[in-house]
Amino acid sequence: MKRLQIIATALFLSLSVGAAKQPTLPCEGLADSITRYALTQARIAAVTCTLDSLDEQTFSVKCNNKLACIPMRPETVDTLRQMSLRIVRRQHPTAQQVRIYTDGFEIGQLIPNYYALTPSPEHEHIVNSTQPLLRNTSSVSTTDKGLNGRHIALWGSHGQYYHQASNRWLWQRAPIFTTVEDLFTTGYTMPYLVPMLENAGAIVIQARERDTQNSEYIIDDTQAQTRGRWSKESSGGFAKTKSQYVDMENPFRMGGYRYAATSADSAKAPSITFATRVGQEGDYAVYVAYTTVEKSVSDVPVTVRHSGGTTTFMLNQQMGGGTWIYVGTFHFDTDHQAEVVVSAHNSKSGIVTADAVKIGGGMGSVARYGKGQKAAAARTSGFPRFMEGARYWMQYAGVPDSVYSPTEGKNDYTDDYSSRPRWVNYLSGGSAANPEEAGLGIPIDLSIAFHSDAGITPSKRIIGTLAIFTTYDNDKQTTYPAMGSRVAARDLADLVQTQLVNDVRTQWAPEWTRRQLLNASYAETRIPKVPAIILESMSHQNPADMHYGLDPRFKFDVSRAVYKGILRFIATEHHLPYVIQPLPVRQLAARIQDDQLSLTWQPTPDPLEPTATSDYYIVYTSVDGRGFDNGQRVERNAFSMTMQPNVHYRFRVVAGNDGGVSMPSPTVAACRVSDSRGMILVVDAFERVCGPESLPIDSATGGFKGFGVPDRYDVCYIGEQFNFNYADKWKSDDEPGCGASRHDYEKMVIGGNTRDYAVIHGRAWAQAEYSYCSCTADALPHLDASDYAAVDFVFGLQRTTTVGQYKTTTDFSCFTPAVRDFMSDVALLGGNVLVSGAYFMEDLLDSVPDSLSNRRFAERVLHCQLDSQTAYQTGDQIRLQTGKNDHQMTFYNTLNPHCYAAVRTQCLNSPEGKPVAQYAGHGKAAVAWAGRWKTCVVGFPIECVKSEDDRALLIATVAKFFESKE
């Protein structure tokens, strides 16, 4: 009834406005005043308006759609109405009420339900699904107040595409400021946004391949091992009969599949096992394919056997059949088979199907050829599949060609951007979200297109964040098939943009710009039958934006803001309470006492989110280098266990609440060696992640030098910037002017700071017959220096870093008060100190205002200094002085997929000490000093040494020095 009343009221207002016969009335200054106020809310173009009288007391202000581009709140609407009424009264004294319209709406209708004093049911888009596509039954987390069971379609901008006119594969955007939008946005969605949404309980379905692995392993049903009775259907399934696919070839129409009747008896229930061995140890995405049939059941057990154990899911085969369905990412090694088992064990009577399993991302396999050429001339992109556009993933994933190629193969550029929204409708077709269309039956709640093309400006100011939505579809319908006004998409856009802008202003740049909430006709927002937005998060073409945009911590914060905006939208739509997942834990430490290991940590408060508190924790354990298990839930910030001797344990911790779990902590490790020579503490002091070095915004040149330090890995970097001249303007994507960058690394996933170096150092200490445990540097105040035979400080690429142009604080100092105090305590106790890294001496000696104190610390505690003649060293050769013959080793000093690169290292000197290692060029790579305590200072990161045997020999040399009677 309430909805009918609202519709009737809106109809009455529209008829009343239309019935007004009076000519437009003058109202001097009204448009200027509205514009000035609107500009305090968002950066928009000028508002124009006309004034009509409905009667002597009621006036109508009709504004252009620029006013609709600002966020509307109750206080905003009140301010606009009162301000307009005051101005109208100057010339029309009888005025008592003003109604303001823009973009076809009265401004009160544009208040999102999240902020509205009286939420409107017209804004609601409620999709109820009794069973989600996938549930992890091995998980010990809770997401009841998160995104539990919600289905989100998502993609990060563009990707490599085939350009018919020039017969070549290209990026869809220019290579600029060391990246390209096709990859830059993937650097947000893949490592941050998608995991955050999934940690909150969402099922995220991506329009592009999500796995960075170049390798791919396909196990078809014809290669699988069956138990029990399985029947064979010869068509309607996947088959890998070709190495590449051309034109409209569909691999999901090239084979058959298996099916079996369910059984309530677990001992007799049919099962099918898809098994293979991977060629290289690592983390791999696992996908399953099946067919949805009339009697499909909603809870099919799917078990993945990986190096960390087994993880079981319940798969809803009543939806999603006929494509690749992502299950999860798991660690596989070369010593054991990777296995995926599909079982027909079920208490319900029905059918279970099994088609194929895909492990790993792989290289692009869709081949294209130009006009007038034959299929034999077709060629693939030569890129990893995750770098390609959505159009090619969809073809490989069995999506109909009418969806992924509306141009029928004539224009891949058009096909790529227009396929993504059609794919959303294909996914949701036949579900409660989109009941009138045929499709996979997945009830998609919303879709997000994550872009970074918010515009350009001739000035050097921040461009900021733009959000786009469309309140009508291709048929000019203004409601969704599942009911509700398409203004719900505006609510989604508003909540996400608001959260992003507010968080960035608070944490990074108060000057961050809020651009329009733009109601415009874009395929990615117009075509979907569910609320859909394009988020132009920033401008990748603008150095002022990219001073922040290239920083991994900024990527984390922006992604967290987007996740929070989505959560608030869905919770509001469904009238549900919500809780924000916690931030990662800190002060993580592993200690060993006899055969007992204790693990402690501290929660991280979130000043932006009062609900983001930690209610419980999950400890994930890895044994002897295998993958992590499914985790053990604990209710307080401590964990203990009995250790087996000579076993290497690794631990990660996440914080949890009813909204989900945090991103994982760094990795700490421990091992109790039989007949140990002592206990070593490995301190992970390498926290630094950052973008490349920024040139000053106000100079005549602009952009970025160097590479920075990625968080775990980097998929965005394509090569160094070579054009820094602001005067050089864009001519084409091949000549983008200022910011133009090389393509040397465009196919490479580059190694970064993985925060697991305690494992690498610890294994080397264990080979030297020492037990070890580890901690993060911020946990040092909670530890006792007297407990350890030696302390190994891992500095890696740690150095004091300033971010962006507006952030005045510095981060990542090597010698924090906690580090200096603990190191001094070790020295006073007559202990042993190992320090390694690429910049720590420079960071210590160049720090202000304590440069004199720091120099004394270097001289009196470390007994080390920079070699003034050759302070820094390039090259990758080191000669280790073992006491017999020198041993030559190499380390990673160029960008590579395996380890972060120490592109520059330190040459050291110890006037009272002795050299331990020399660079092949010139200068001492490591020096040692013996006195009341002993120090060994290494001017390169030990973890960058390529050979595990070489690292072990280096640590053994250090251990021998520490044990000596010098």
| Rg result | 30 Å
Which percent band covers the strand fraction? 25-35%
Helix content, binned percent: 10-25%
The description of the largest β-sheet is: 9 strands, mixed
Find the structural class using helix and strand composition: alpha+beta
Mean residue pLDDT = 93
The total of beta strands comes to 52
Shape: globular
Question: Total helix count?
Answer: 17
Separation of termini? 91 Å
How would you explain this protein's 3D organization?
- There is one protein chain.
- The chain is an alpha+beta fold.
- About 20% of the residues lie in helices and about 25% in strands.
- The protein is built from 17 helices and 52 strands.
- The strands form 14 sheets. It has a nine-stranded mixed beta sheet with strand order 39-34-40-43-52-51-50-46-47, with helices on both faces. A six-stranded antiparallel beta sheet has the order 5-17-16-19-14-11, with no helix packed on it. Strands 9-6-22-25-23-24 form a six-stranded mixed beta sheet, with helices on both faces.
- The longest helix is centred in the middle third of the chain and has 22 residues, at about 550-575.
- It is globular and about 100 Å long.
- Residues about 1-20 have low confidence and may be disordered.
SSE topology sketch:
Blueprint: H1 2-19, H2 30-39, E1 49-53, E2 58-63, H3 74-91, E3 97-102, E4 105-106, E5 134-136, E6 151-156, E7 161-163, E8 168-170, H4 181-184, H5 186-199, E9 203-206, E10 217-220, E11 225-227, E12 231-237, E13 255-261, E14 271-276, E15 282-289, E16 300-306, E17 309-315, E18 325-332, E19 338-343, E20 351-354, E21 356-359, H6 390-396, H7 401-404, H8 412-428, E22 444-451, E23 465-469, H9 487-507, E24 514-519, H10 523-526, E25 532-536, H11 543-549, H12 552-573, E26 586-593, E27 596-602, E28 616-623, E29 632-634, E30 638-642, E31 649-657, E32 660-661, E33 668-670, E34 679-684, E35 693-694, E36 704-705, E37 713-714, E38 750-751, H13 757-767, E39 771-776, E40 790-796, E41 801-802, E42 810-811, H14 817-828, E43 832-837, H15 840-846, H16 851-862, E44 865-866, E45 872-873, E46 877-881, E47 886-890, E48 905-906, E49 908-909, E50 914-919, E51 924-930, E52 934-938, H17 948-963
Parallel strand pairs: 2-3, 6-9, 6-22, 22-25, 23-24, 34-39, 34-40, 40-43, 43-52
Antiparallel strand pairs: 1-2, 3-4, 5-17, 7-8, 10-21, 11-14, 12-13, 13-20, 14-19, 15-18, 15-21, 16-17, 16-19, 23-25, 26-27, 27-30, 28-29, 28-31, 31-32, 31-33, 35-36, 37-38, 41-42, 44-49, 45-48, 46-47, 46-50, 50-51, 51-52
Helix pairs in contact: 2-3, 5-12, 6-8, 9-12, 13-17, 15-16
